[in-house]
Amino acid sequence: MKKSIYFLVFLLIASSCSKEETIDAKVLIGIWERTSLTENSTSVDKLVFKSDNSGIKTHTENHKSGEVVSSASDFKWNLNDGMVTLTSGDNSTLGTYVINIENEISLVAINESPYIKVSNTVLDY
């Protein structure tokens, strides 16, 4: 009987640890946004992650002069060990992001402001 209880306790501990270390792809689905301010402009970058492992990256710059510059590109994404890799249509890597404990997304190689999730739906895209 004691062996059964010890086994159950071990099983519960082992299963709870593995769940904490694994990030579910459903957490990623939605719209993520990052805003950057400079003296002359405001930039908004968005990453839209769809459930079919596709997505859209947008960038909009609003300058104090009134000029607006924007771009959009599509990507495919893959989640592996808490790292999200974005690839283009020709399979070249566009960037690798990490999901931190606060559920923010940041580029691995660059120290920049993180993306914050602003919506769980992608219906607008």
UniProtKB/TrEMBL annotation:
PROSITE patterns cross-referenced by the UniProt entry: PROKAR_LIPOPROTEIN (PS51257)
Record's protein name: Lipocalin-like domain-containing protein
Domain of life: Bacteria
